[in-house]
Amino acid sequence: MKGFVFGMAAAAVVVCAPAFGAGALLTQINASDLIVIGETADAGSVANGVLSLAVNIQGTLKGSAPAGNLSVHFALGSSGPQTAISGVAGRCGIFFLVQDAGQWSLVPRNQPQFTLGDLFYPEGSCGAVAAPASPAPSADGIVTAVIQAIQSGTPSDQDIIALFNALPPADSPSVALAAAQISSGAQRGLQILSLGWRLSLGEDEALGEVSAWIPALNQSAIGVILASAVSGYTGTTAAAAKGLGEIAMQGSGTGFEMPASMALRSLHTAAALPYLLQLLDSADPRVRLNAVAGLSMSLAGVPPLTSGASPQAVMEKALNPAFRKQLSAEDQAHLQFASLGDAASEAALIAWWKIRAQQMVAAGQ
Amino acid sequence: MKLVCMTLLPLALQLVPAARGQGCIDKVLYANYTQRTGGNTVFSYAEEEITGPDALTYWLTLSTQFYQNTTQLYSNQAASSQGGGGVWTEYSITLQSTGPGTFTLNSLNQASSDYCGIQAPPYSDGWNGYATSGLAVQQPSVSSASPPMFLNGAASSGTQTAVSALTANPNGAPATSTITWRFLAGSSYGTVTCVEDSGCAQANYTATAPGSACGAYDVRIVASFDGFDSTALWIFNNAPQSVFHMWGGPWDSTNPWAPTAGWQTTYTYKVLDMCSQPINYVQVNETFGSSSEPYPGGTWCLPSTNQPGVPDTCGWAWGSWSNASQFDQYGQFVDYLFEINKSGKYPPVIASGQNWFDESASSNVVDTSQFFYAGSPTNGQGVNLNALVSMTHYLDHGKSVQ
């Protein structure tokens, strides 16, 4: 279900949107005419679906801020709250703004799914982030300020998830730096954020740290950070296969077997084979399909799915009759990527793959 | 193959002095060449002529063999009447019939003159009377910039495209060749159109139907150079097929707006293709089916009352995830289920991280079904992801079940 629909802000947001791959934060930075560090000076009011509030500007990161409190607006749409929203006053953070028809509108960080947190990136306490002296910081400098704001307090899980989704490490060198600096003594959410970023950066050793978090993350919203990073992990070393395999072996009930099997399926390396073999016995049919598909890809000689590669383009190399690897008729007949079929078909397929996978493991294929 | 003897062509014949017997100073001229005369044709020609004061006293014979690789396709022996002049043989083959290969023309040029005392080669200057020419012909090919993704009407969506840019690679065919494209199989799965001003060297293939199964290369296309077909390009029309619930559920239904405003439940989804591979980023939209309102009192609004893209007064709006910033680096998007305070509905206060998990009939406020589509930002358009999701709103949380 879509969240609130907004009008004014949305109209100004889609400006110079970077190609897919750049996260929402960079999009937000590029779309903003003015980025300030500030504090909400009142509780705001809602009229005709528009939230209006005053922001006391304490520093400027982009653009030129007018003097005094700035009146800003956000179009909630007809589905938004109809009365003033509590909890708005006295909030400090980084605000992204565009000027439209003479008034300043907030650029949401996660359009169009609006939450209060979308209005700004919160600071732990007012003044925790200082605006750098002139000249105005680059986009990377603004990213750094946002990370500092998040680190300065005890952000909510939603704030941390939003930042992880909006800021892939490839967007800024500040991310890797921050990921390395967040200590084991930091707030739980920040530690998970750090671990998620390290996984996104392809640090094999970070995989080994995931298992320790799994018991605490079951049925926890913030677990999406590690689940996403694990499922999309693209390292191809033996250590990567081992790390992913150990996560998957913790079982279906953890919520992480499926993400880990997605990544193992895409490795297509010999080191992944023993784990795929074991996952043929998973209680989760989606995991069993991933195991069969991963084994099929290895047998078919599909190259590893590296970071940024299109899964479809990689599959093309294995499937296209014009240049696919020549297999025996029996092997070719058992390649399966999309479906396990009915119960009888699946049983026969799984049984065949258990034998074939053992041969592949023995051959280091 | 055509074998024609005709008037000597104005060729750059090689000149070899004939042996000088009894004072004759006549010269043998010969030619031997094989060349591409069109996208679909190879022409091979051999000729022998003698010139000089005593040319009219010679008999000429020209023996030829024409090969494709090591297979002899044709041979001929041509002889002139006494009186000089010339003799020649030509072969013209159609590549679409023979296929590619190395074509070779061998010729043996012989001349004799009783008058000059010359009965057989050898000629002078070390030439033994043999000549050869050859030409390696490759089959044209077709390359594709990327495999297509069927999007049910859209040319592109997100990072996915239904259009594959095709290039016809001549591999030696003359630039003057007329290029045409045609289907060997699967014409019901797509269309091919030439790129303007490219002479059809560039074309666009558009997937107009999903493939019959994962990895089913239903389509085969060739580019023909004057009738000589390229190797076939095999195409699998992949398509978005399902959404996969990656993470999330009826837990941590934290308050999104304020402590008294309502609840929010998040689900993170991936879109998978026909081979159950994740798609990096394709636009997604949703619709809702009919709904019921079992909550006692019936004061909560129903989603079926709204229109696509237009939220009703109860806060229901059909979602559209249509720009890159709504997808994370793994191509995932988040669906928020929420309820907020409105006139006539009052979701209970929920502290962050708290969820009552009350799914009793008395707390069930709305039952509906949710449908996802990929490849379009417009609600209800694109590829139906076959994802009938049962969605229920309870007093304190939402729940989607695939």
Largest sheet descriptor of chain A: 5 strands, mixed, barrel
The overall average pLDDT of chain A, rounded, is: 85
Sheet with most strands of chain B:
6 strands, antiparallel
Largest interface in this structure: A-B, 74 and 79 residues
**Which architecture of the largest domain in chain A per CATH?**
Alpha Horseshoe
- Share in β-strands of chain B: 35-45%
Coarse shape of chain B: rod-shaped
Helix residue percentage of chain A = 40-55%
Radius of gyration of chain A: 24 Å
Helix content of chain B: under 10%
| SSE order of chain B, one letter for each helix or strand | EEEEEEHEEEEEEEEEEEEEEEEEEEEE
Main sheet: strand order of chain A = 1-3-4-6-5
Provide the structure class of chain B.
mainly beta
**SSE run of chain A:** HHEEEEEEEHHHHHHHHHHHHH
Number of strands of chain A: 7
Q: What is the count of helical runs of chain A?
A: 15
Unreliable parts of chain B: 1-11
Level-1 CATH class name of the largest domain in chain A: Mainly Alpha
Number of domains of chain A: 2
Summarize the structure in short.
The complex is a heterodimer of chains A (365) and B (402). Chain A has helices at residues 8-13, 24-31, 139-151, 157-166, 173-181, 188-200, 204-217, 223-231, 238-248, 257-267, 273-279, 285-300, 311-319, 329-334, 343-363; strands spanning 34-40, 45-47, 50-62, 70-75, 92-100, 103-106, 120-122. Chain A has 365 residues and is α+β, with helices and mostly antiparallel strands.
Folded structure, characterized:
Chain A is an alpha+beta fold and 365 residues long. Chain A has helices at 8-13, 24-31, 139-151, 157-166, 173-181, 188-200, 204-217, 223-231, 238-248, 257-267, 273-279, 285-300, 311-319, 329-334, 343-363; strands at 34-40, 45-47, 50-62, 70-75, 92-100, 103-106, 120-122. Chain A has a five-stranded mixed beta barrel with strand order 1-3-4-6-5. In chain A, strand 3 and strand 4 form a beta hairpin. The longest helix of chain A has 21 residues, at 343-363. Chain A is elongated and about 75 Å long. Chain B folds into three domains: 14-137, Immunoglobulin-like; 141-238, Immunoglobulin-like; 241-401. Chain B has one helix and 27 strands. In chain B, a hairpin with a 2-residue loop joins strand 16 and strand 17 (228-229). With 402 residues, chain B is an all-beta fold. In chain B, 1% of the residues lie in helices and 45% in strands. Chain B is rod-shaped, with a radius of gyration of 39 Å. In chain B, 49% of the residues are buried. In chain B, the strands form seven sheets. In chain B, strands 21, 22, 24, 25, 26 and 27 form a six-stranded antiparallel beta sheet that branches. A four-stranded antiparallel beta sheet of chain B has the order 1-2-3-6. Chain B has a four-stranded antiparallel beta sheet with strand order 5-4-7-8, with no helix packed on it.
